[in-house]
Design goal:
The protein is mainly alpha-helical. The protein has 25 helices and four strands.
Length: 471
């Protein structure tokens, strides 16, 4: 990155940055969701999402990680920003492949990455407009300059985005008209993700409450998102014009805008809302904690009046269930390398690993994948089925998995004292020590850590901590 680009990034992400305010505004979730659909319609991005992303099976984890990454990229400290940009580039450099039409995709494609930023900018402008806060020309110019600087920080330059706002709108319209497609990723987001989104961690043990809420909220969220998209795009990818959807969409955006202006900051701060949904996310406080308690009370009431599900052993789960909940990270019904890569990405993000430690972690997962292929891939098709896994997984030698556990212990043991203390444990699992993991000890030895990791990853023993991290 040139010196001028670095200076531009510093200025754009200063105390008056609009982007830094947006990333902490829960209302921006509307813009990000809308932008994600437009991104997914790009052939390269859509293919990469379907084949490599865990956004369908782990949307709440993806939401949390996206939030953390954006906050790092927009951090006042230039070192933090540069470190995160470098980490994101390493992550995307590992994503490549061929789509069903035989077209190559690459996570580092400059044009595709520019389109991601373009959709975020346009969706943010749309969010303001629909919320009743249309931006004037100086504010638009500032916001566009900040998104330019954001792309320059990630990409090294911002040449793929037009230099001026006037040129941007022509570029945007041309992309909508000629470059986007009705990809599988678009259909999955609109018709599968919203309808089948798994319960957030807060409600994971209250399936009746979540099922009731999702049956209403899922279709409403899909209708609001579709109605907010550009009409030429909806025509191009054949999205339906649902009766009443536009009125519902306008109401949702106006309500979000009104709430952001009149409610106390604690109610609309994104950290508070994410912590409401995911208790493992740090940073939430204030009135939403009361809401969380009330939700727990409501769930308890529902359990009193609904039949109890069959008991599930707290120490084990079936091989089929373990395969679905833990191993199949991308949700395609098979265990493939992208599933293991998704685990590695989650761990690297959670621990904010540097390049050397990240490489060690990925190398360990590669060794485990080779072992799985050798021992489980009976038909040699490059993927492991549920049946292949269930037949022989428990009897695997486990050398590759032990290597993963050793690397994970090393990167979690920050002070290199060959024991994981409570603070280090919290940095990995976002939860406190539990007796089922430590036996009440004040520290966690390497042997105990490796033993617990192998027991969990072979599906032999349930673990609250590893469930919160990988399942």
């Amino acid at each position: 990155m040139s010196q001028s680009t670095a200076e531009q990034a510093v200025d754009a992400f200063g105390p008056d940055s609009m982007l830094r305010r947006l990333v902490n505004d829960a209302r921006w979730g509307l813009a990000v969701t809308r932008a994600t659909v437009l991104e997914a319609a790009h052939p390269q991005i859509g293919a990469a999402l379907i084949e490599n992303s865990s956004f369908v099976t782990h949307p709440w984890r993806r939401l949390r990680n996206t939030l953390v990454s954006m906050q790092r990229v927009l951090d006042p400290d230039q070192h933090v920003r540069t470190r995160e940009a470098t980490r994101l580039n390493r992550l995307h450099a590992r994503i490549s492949g061929t789509d069903p039409q035989g077209r190559h995709y690459d996570g580092t494609d400059a044009g595709a990455r520019a389109w991601v930023v373009a959709t975020l900018f346009e969706s943010t402008v749309t969010m303001y407009r629909l919320s009743g806060e249309s931006l004037d020309r100086p504010a638009l110019e500032q916001l566009y300059a900040e998104f330019h600087a954001f792309l320059a920080l990630i990409e090294g330059d911002s040449d793929q985005l037009p230099a001026t706002l006037r040129e941007f709108w022509a570029y945007y319209d041309d992309m909508i008209t000629h470059s986007l497609e009705s990809t599988e990723a678009v259909r999955v987001i609109l018709y599968r993700l919203f309808a089948n989104v798994p319960a957030p961690p807060l409600l994971r043990n209250h399936p009746a409450v979540w099922a009731a809420g999702r049956s209403v909220a899922g279709p409403v969220a899909a209708a609001i998102t579709i109605a907010s998209l550009p009409e030429p795009f909806c025509r191009r990818v054949a999205l339906p014009d649902l009766p009443g959807a536009r009125a519902l969409m306008h109401g949702a955006y106006l309500t979000a805008g009104f709430a952001s202006r009149v409610l106390p900051d604690g109610w609309v701060d994104v950290n508070s809302l994410v912590s409401l949904l995911d208790p493992s996310h740090t940073g939430g406080s204030g009135p939403w904690q009361t809401v969380r308690r009330k939700a727990g009370q409501a769930a308890a009431l529902v359990r009193l009046v609904t039949p109890a599900p069959d008991d599930v052993s707290p120490t084990t789960r079936s091989a089929d269930r373990f395969f679905t909940e833990v191993l199949d990270q991308t949700g395609d019904g098979y265990l493939t390398w992208p599933d293991l890569a998704a685990m590695a990405r989650e761990l690297a993000t959670r621990l904010d690993l540097d390049e050397q430690d990240e490489e060690r972690l990925y190398d360990a997962y590669v060794a485990w994948w080779r072992e799985l292929q050798t021992n489980l891939d009976a038909d040699g098709d490059g993927r492991v089925t549920r049946q292949e896994y269930a037949a022989t997984a428990v009897s695997l030698p486990g050398a590759g998995l032990i290597k993963v556990a050793d690397v994970l212990f090393d990167v979690t043991d920050g002070d290199d004292d060959q024991a994981i203390d409570a603070q280090e444990f919290q940095s990995l699992f976002r939860t406190a020590f539990r007796r089922d993991l430590t036996g009440g000890a004040d520290t966690y030895s390497r042997s105990a850590f490796v033993r617990q990791f192998l027991s969990f990853m072979s599906g032999q023993q349930h673990s609250v901590a590893y469930d919160s991290l990988l399942s």
